[in-house]
Amino acid sequence: AQSVSQHNHHVILSEAASLELGCNYSYGGTVNLFWYVQYPGQHLQLLLKYFSGDPLVKGIKGFEAEFIKSKFSFNLRKPSVQWSDTAEYFCAVTRYSGAGSYQLTFGKGTKLSVIP
Amino acid sequence: DSGVTQTPKHLITATGQRVTLRCSPRSGDLSVYWYQQSLDQGLQFLIQYYNGEERAKGNILERFSAQQFPDLHSELNLSSLELGDSALYFCASSVGTGARGLNTIYFGEGSWLTVV
């Protein structure tokens, strides 16, 4: 069964520090990869997505992610975090669920706390 | 604002009771997805409907059911509620069936269910 693993449960950084959140998936076929962010008390918002092409994907709010097929990874990065980046981050992968449908499978999430 | 509307935002009910959560997808979206988010299980896919028909089933309990109506809104029915059903229930929508490369899934703000 396909799974999505996020290595860190909780990351604490100071403002201006660089961020890298790990995500690995287990799926042998073609994948679509996503990072969603959930700010406290809010819904999931799409940060960025990879479907094909350039494996370095740029998203909103200065985030980027790199798809490394050989490592089955899609790590999220930001060179300099801000206090407003405090949120929970979810990696997700599409998987084929039959009848022409694809659905997202989420990792368990990584909480990011940024200290001013 | 994602355009996906969920009601109610908060709900407190007793064990053994039944509740209905409602979702209106984004205008033009035909697919509706339900997810459950709890502290121990993370984000779990429950079920997907496309244009009124069930398309995919995830980790949905037999006590739970859903449907999508002709106007494309969806309802998630939770019955014989247990304490462990307390969670945040997200509805999401997309244009199509979530097929690779074509659809981004947008999430509503969620319905907080507390079972006491």
What can you see in these coordinates?
The mean pLDDT of chain A is 90. In chain A, 0% of the residues lie in helices and 58% in strands. Chain A has no helices and twelve strands. Chain B is built from no helices and eleven strands. Chain A binds chain B through residues 30, 32, 36, 42-46, 49, 51-52, 90, 94, 97-109, and chain B through 2, 4, 33, 35, 42-43, 45, 48, 50, 55-56, 58, 90, 92, 97-101, 103-110.
Task: Describe the structure in brief.
The complex is a heterodimer of chains A (116) and B (116). With 116 residues, chain A is mainly beta. Chain A is built from no helices and 12 strands.
SSE arrangement:
The complex is a heterodimer of chains A (about 120) and B (about 120).
Chain A: E1 3-6, E2 10-14, E3 19-21, E4 23-26, E5 33-38, E6 44-50, E7 56-58, E8 64-68, E9 73-78, E10 87-98, E11 101-106, E12 110-115
Parallel strand pairs in A: 2-12
Antiparallel strand pairs in A: 1-4, 3-9, 5-6, 5-10, 7-8, 8-9, 10-11, 10-12
Chain B: E1 5-7, E2 10-13, E3 19-24, E4 31-38, E5 42-50, E6 53-57, E7 64-68, E8 74-78, E9 87-94, E10 106-107, E11 111-115
Parallel strand pairs in B: 2-11
Antiparallel strand pairs in B: 1-3, 3-8, 4-5, 4-9, 5-6, 7-8, 9-10, 9-11
User: How many individual helices of chain B?
Assistant: 0
The parts of chain A where pLDDT drops under 50 for at least 5 residues are none
Give the overall pLDDT of chain A as a whole number.
90
- The termini of chain A sit apart by 41 Å
Largest sheet of chain B: 7 strands, mixed
**Based on CA inertia axes, which overall geometry of chain B fits?**
globular
Poorly predicted runs of chain B are none
For the largest beta-sheet of chain A, the strand count, sense and barrel status come to: 6 strands, mixed
Give the tally of β-strands of chain A: 12
Report the mean per-residue pLDDT of chain B as an integer. Answer: 91
- Rg of chain B, alpha carbons: 13 Å
Oligomer: heterodimer
Residue share in helix of chain A: under 10%
Largest interface: A-B, 26 and 27 residues
Q: What's the helix-strand series of chain A?
A: EEEEEEEEEEEE
Taken in chain order, the helices and strands of chain B follow as EEEEEEEEEEE
Number of helices of chain A: 0
- Portion in beta strands of chain B: over 45%
Rg on CA atoms of chain A, Å: 14 Å
Q: Can you give the helix content of chain B as a percent range?
A: under 10%
Question: What structural class should be given to the helix and strand makeup of chain B?
Answer: mainly beta
